[in-house]
TrEMBL record:
Species: Gossypium tomentosum
CDD domains in the cross-refs: VOC_like
Region forming the signal peptide: none
Protein name, per record: VOC domain-containing protein
UniProt xrefs under Gene3D superfamilies: 2,3-Dihydroxybiphenyl 1,2-Dioxygenase, domain 1
Sequence ranges assigned to domain VOC in this UniProt record: 8-139
InterPro entries referenced in this protein's UniProt entry, alphabetically: Glyas_Bleomycin-R_OHBP_Dase, Glyas_Fos-R_dOase_dom, VOC_core
Amino acid sequence: MAVAKAACLNHISRESSDIRRLANFYKEIFGFEEIESPDFGEFKVTWLNLPGSFPMHLIERNPLTKLPEGPYSSTAAVADPSNLPRGHHICFTVSNFDSFVQSLKDKGIQTFERSLPNGKVRQIFFFDPDGNGLEVASREAP
């Protein structure tokens, strides 16, 4: 029996040295909308919402942090999207998979594509401007 009752996703957070750049990326690529953000005083935040889905909390990175900007993947310290199927990422599903993939290519975003063996799920992996892993999947009709 689970300890939490009626658990659901509240938000996802991403830390960035440039939250405006990151906000613009998620707004342009996925259609997130900016919503009212609380004032945390000592650091900047931007709240985004993906209508019908979930909010994302972008938090200004502590300038004293010595860790790399993004996690890249669980197995590699370089930004290679082919590592993301087994690395840390957030996955979205879109209804316009082919045109979405073409838009990423038109923007010069490095991607890695694959399909699951049954062919019903196509996937594309890439990074946001801070090196956070992203996947977009399409579920095809059986």
